[in-house]
Amino acid sequence: MKAAFLQCPTGVSGNMFLGALADAGLEWDQFVNLLTANLPLTGYWLKKEPVVKNGITATLVTVEIKEDGQHRHLSDIEQLISSSNLPTAVKEKSIKVFRRLARAEAAVHNCSPEQVHFHEVGAVDAIIDIVGSVLGLHLLEIEQLYASPLPLGTGFINCDHGTLPVPAPATLKLLEGYPIAPDPPDCNGELTTPTGAALVTTLAECKQIPMKIIATGFGAGNRNLPVPNAVRLLVGEVTDDTSATLEAISIIETNIDDMNPEFYDYLMKLLFANGALDVFFTPVHMKNNRPGILLTVVAKPEGKDALMAILRQETTSLGFRYREEQRLALARDTITVTTGYGSVKVKVATSHDKILNVAPEYKDCAQLAEKHKIPIKVLYDEAKREAYSKLQNTGALSNTFKKWP
Asked: CB count, 10 Å around CB of 285?
């Protein structure tokens, strides 16, 4: 599968998105001809030029327009796109972006999406930015788009509604539920525009996956900032197998040398109950050669603060370290097998359509071993044998689990 990852260190706008596609290998003449010949919109022309942003060459795309002055409603834009001769997938995705944008504007202005007057975002340049970006993804045959968290910016902007704080209210509404990033240093002003936010939150998923990079593109923004003002598009090949996912995690650590060791069991259970992905204790020797414990908690980034609150309350530590990392997680599924002593859940991990690991659930095995007064290893081995048999013979899982290493 061909996929792309959009890195947005200084935010994103519609023309930055389109510029990145052009820089990543989009055949420009073919793209312009298809767009102008098939979309019933006139009074504009597209300009593409190389620019240098803080020593980095990027592509700047500009939509040059005559005075448009037309305020369009959502139905007008939908009709414009629907009546075009563009590919069906391009029309559907473009309309989806505009509908999301209309819902955000409607929520801000307390009206229905159908009543929204598209001013800046409904002008010719925004229509070209949105439809052009969707068409560019289509022409590059990018099947799945991923993107980074988005910085917002600070300050104020002038628009048809007057002077508004940055980020624009519609941008904030569009980014509800989407991760945001810290602003780059000394970069004031609007970084993520409503059009850029609508494109990313509609078309992309905020995560990074392993892929083999085959092309890169830099899409320049109009402003000059202390850091390179450009989005970076990484185009690559990934397998259709979704067995390995690269995901963000938070690591929380603290060193403890003065806590009653009887409390550790209670603390571990409490952390797991509140969302910790893993908790472990490592013996260490601290200053004055005093024995202590390195406590490590692995968590989802959004659960980090709650877990740190528990550590502050339940431990004697005076401070904590935390950092963001990435982990590569194999696909996993759980099946239930029947042994001669009862049912046991079994975890199955795969990679590239091959089963890599089959692991009976310890708690199920322990309970049955205690109940029937048999060695746990006997029950564990029987559960594993039944799991392999079930996977191989009954097709209990999807076809991707049927190949063996």
From this structure: 10
